[in-house]
Write a structure and sequence with these properties.
The protein is an alpha/beta fold. The chain has 21 helices and 30 strands. Strands 4-5-6-7-8-11 form a six-stranded parallel sheet. The model has no long low-confidence stretch (mean pLDDT 96). This is Glycoside hydrolase family 3 C-terminal domain-containing protein.
């Protein structure tokens, strides 16, 4: 068979195979059922289900979603789930049956969730993307993506549904944690690193998986911050902001893309031909696979109401450029009959099948469809990956306040009371899209502090005080008693994206876990969990206020998936750490920073408002947006790019090498950064551009470059940036990129509101 000959070019193999396929086999390649429903796991044995076998024999299955996924939605638990070795063996059983019991022996594409680690039992849980963005460390993130690809492919997963490239405009949105932040340029840099890290030098490598860019596009700008709500956005903003990270990732070679659930100006992204065919495939030349989000085709007929029924929805989607349906229900049910009845042209079906088969050939699945169970056991959750998770967590933590040098804590500074609902609940620091974890695998903040003071355990006191949600104050007395005995209080509060793993709840008087018949969920963030405000849930603020009355030094550690707006804490806490959801090593990372073993270097990638009423408060708003409200100005509490250190950095000698360039010219911008403190540390040097006068309105400042540099005390480093058309252009009146002659201002500094400035003039060239 020619299509099995690896020496032949991929397009030739694809066309030969396509010519052999029946209509049912073609449609089968475009469906993606839920993978965890294809097998039963009992006493260590994997048994494939009859329904899976029947589907393979009746036309085939193109892909499976989440064979290795474990969480409450799948119903896969630590007890019923697959170990790293068993997961690889299960994938092999699935592939073997599909290849040996289908007419053409086409392997199945195994797709998995991997936004901050492979979502399988035993895999390394890295910090959530909001934390990863806060590292401003593109190289380190690329290294993480290589680790995720290594773990996923070792079990047979060949495609991942990441990275998430949504630009956040309203942090009330529950999926804020899944995003890198509010700035398209920074997201674009992370997007390129993700594609390079996940896909490696070649897709058929043993450590490579296909990246799927999502959610295309505008998903982070939904009405009211409500998940999948309508998006009201002009074409220029769409091209200039939200599409930018996707374009850069496509240019980097991304193999797959996923349209968003939302509509833009009345057109659902799932059927937006202008975006999928015009921009993505036409202007950008994307030749990869397009897969829907789960249930997105159903929404066309039941939600968006732009289709009469399921068949109409399926036809609209595939004509618009959809190649595969996650869940597979609509395509599997309607495509064959739609072609036979003349409602859908077979050429349209063939084009989608070509793209799916092309990806399978590029991944090398026809040559090597099977995983290596021994390698999976060695690679997944390796010591190297765990160490990487700790470093990423450390670099993503942002020091928001440090009054009077409250931090770092001294290793012999008396007793420390660790109080709060997030102090010792591991799931609360992992974020959404996380598999169940044994308690021993996750180090909480309490665990991290106890590890630091292992020689004097009596110095660490603990009380949960309250839950994330609910109004119970039954734990207040114990928490206050605990705080009274301490010299310093570390309050660990925030939110939770932990879904109900059946772990019960926590005893507020003893801090012990307990299982009850009515366990209370603390989830207040994550997919589908959107909020009306940004304050702490439940009675957490009240607990902090009561403990503050004791007059003890108060350090607040936030563990959460979206910014928190609590003016009282900003004004009264001695120190504040924003840790986001820091992953399985988060407790160690927080303790490293609390005790000064690591100098904080995280910087905000999302503005933190003073009050929810300021939203939208993202930094790149237009100059015309207005200055203030009656009650207060429009500035955030903590601006984009902000973050403190245990040392101090001074900026000087900002220089523009050629302060006049042509519209197609370039120049070099340099600045000297000096560590003027007494500790070594890393600084994130940020460059912003202002277009002083433009044909269409522009943001006051836009991030166009950044460097993370490590400096010893007294050390000075010259940091350089290139400025050219990429940094100076915008989408003009004709919706094309343009660099206009005129005056620009270059800003370089610590954050968007703390910079040195220099002028740059652009002349017609």
């Amino acid at each position: 068979m020619l299509y099995k000959d690896r020496s032949k070019p991929v397009p030739e193999r694809v066309e030969h195979l396509l010519g052999l396929m029946t209509l049912e086999e073609k449609a089968g390649q475009l469906v993606q059922p839920f993978g965890w429903q294809t097998y039963e796991h009992n006493d260590g044995e994997i048994q494939l289900t009859d329904s899976f076998k029947e589907q393979v024999q009746s036309g085939g299955i193109g892909s499976l979603y989440g064979v290795l996924r474990a969480d409450p939605w799948t119903g896969v638990t630590l007890e019923t789930g697959l170990s790293p070795r068993e997961g690889a063996e299960a994938v092999n059983e699935i592939q073997r049956y599909a290849i040996e019991n289908s007419r053409l022996g086409i392997p199945i594409l195994i797709g998995e969730e991997c936004s901050h680690g492979h979502m399988a039992i035993g895999a390394t849980v890295f910090p959530v993307p909001l934390s990863l963005g806060s590292t401003w460390n593109v190289e380190l993130y690329r290294e993480m993506c290589r680790a995720v690809a290594r773990e996923t492919r070792s079990q047979g997963g060949a495609v991942t549904y990441s990275p998430v490239l949504d630009v956040v405009r309203d942090p009330r949105w529950g999926r804020t944690e899944e995003c890198f932040g509010e700035d398209a340029y920074l997201i674009g840099e992370m997007a390129v690193a993700s594609v390079e890290g996940l896909q490696g030098e070649r897709l058929d490598g043993e450590d490579s998986v296909a990246a799927t860019l999502k959610h295309f596009v505008g998903y982070g700008s939904s009405e009211g911050g409500r998940n999948a709500g309508p998006v009201h956005m002009g074409r220029r903003e769409l091209l200039e902001v939200d599409l930018l990270p996707f374009r850069k990732a496509v240019e980097a070679g991304a193999a797959s893309i996923m349209p968003a659930y939302n509509e833009i100006d009345g057109v659902p992204c799932t059927t937006n031909e202008e975006l999928l065919d015009g921009v993505l495939r036409g202007e950008w030349g994307f030749d990869g696979m397009v897969i829907t989000d789960c249930g997105a085709i159903d929404m066309l007929a039941s939600g968006h109401d732009v289709a009469e029924d399921g068949r109409d929805a399926a036809i609209q989607a595939i004509r618009a450029g959809i190649d595969m349906e996650m869940s597979g229900v609509m395509f599997g049910k309607h495509l064959v009959e739609a072609v036979r009845s003349g409602q859908l042209e077979e050429d349209v079906l063939n084009q989608a099948v070509r793209r799916v088969l092309t990806l399978k050939f590029r991944l090398g699945l026809f040559e090597q469809p099977y995983a290596d169970p021994v390698r999976a056991e060695q690679v997944i959750g390796s010591t190297e990956h765990v160490e990487l998770a700790r470093q990423l967590a450390s670099e993503g933590i942002v020091l928001l306040k440090n009054e009077g040098g409250a931090l770092p804590l001294s290793a012999d500074a008396g007793k420390i009371a660790v109080i709060g609902p997030n102090a010792d609940v591991g799931y609360n620091q992992l974020g959404d899209y996380t598999s169940p974890q044994p308690r021993s695998k996750v180090t909480t903040v309490l665990g991290g502090i106890r590890s630091k003071l292992a020689g004097t355990p009596e110095r660490v006191l603990y009380a949960p005080g309250c839950r994330i949600n609910g109004d119970s104050r039954e734990g207040f007395d114990v928490a206050l008693s605990c705080a009274e005995q301490a010299d310093t209080v570390v309050m660990v509060v925030g939110g939770s994206s932990a879904r109900d793993f059946g772990e019960g709840t926590i005893d507020l008087r003893t801090g012990a876990s307990k299982v009850t018949g009515n366990a209370q969920s603390d989830m207040d963030c994550g997919e589908g969990i959107d909020r009306m405000n940004l304050s702490l849930s439940g009675v957490q603020l009240e607990l902090i206020q009561e403990i503050h009355k004791l007059g003890k030094p108060l350090v607040v550690v936030y563990i959460n998936g979206r910014p928190i707006a609590e003016p009282w804490i900003d004004e009264n806490a001695d120190a504040i750490l924003e840790a986001w959801y820091p992953g399985q090593e988060g407790g160690h990372a927080v303790a490293d920073i609390l005790f000064g073993d690591v100098n904080p270097s995280g910087r905000l990638t999302i503005s933190v408002p003073k009050h929810v009423g300021q939203i939208p408060v993202y930094y790149h708003g237009k100059r015309s947006r207005g200055k203030r409200y009656l009650e207060d100005d429009s500035q955030p509490r903590y601006p984009f790019g902000y973050g403190l250190s245990y040392t101090a950095f001074n900026y000087s000698n900002l220089t523009v090498e050629s302060d006049t360039i042509d519209t197609d010219g370039t120049t070099k911008v340099s600045v000297e950064v000096t560590n003027v403190g007494d500790r070594a540390g890393s600084e994130v040097v940020q460059m912003y551009i202002s277009d002083i006068a433009s044909t269409v309105t522009r943001p006051a400042k836009e991030l166009k470059g950044f460097r993370k540099v490590f400096l010893q005390p007294g050390e000075t480093q010259t940091v350089e940036f290139q400025v050219g058309s990429e940094q100076l252009q915008y989408i003009g009146r004709d919706y094309k990129p343009v660099v206009e002659p005129g005056e620009f201002r270059v800003h370089v500094g610590k954050n968007v509101n703390d910079t040195l400035s220099a002028n740059l003039f652009v002349r017609e060239g």
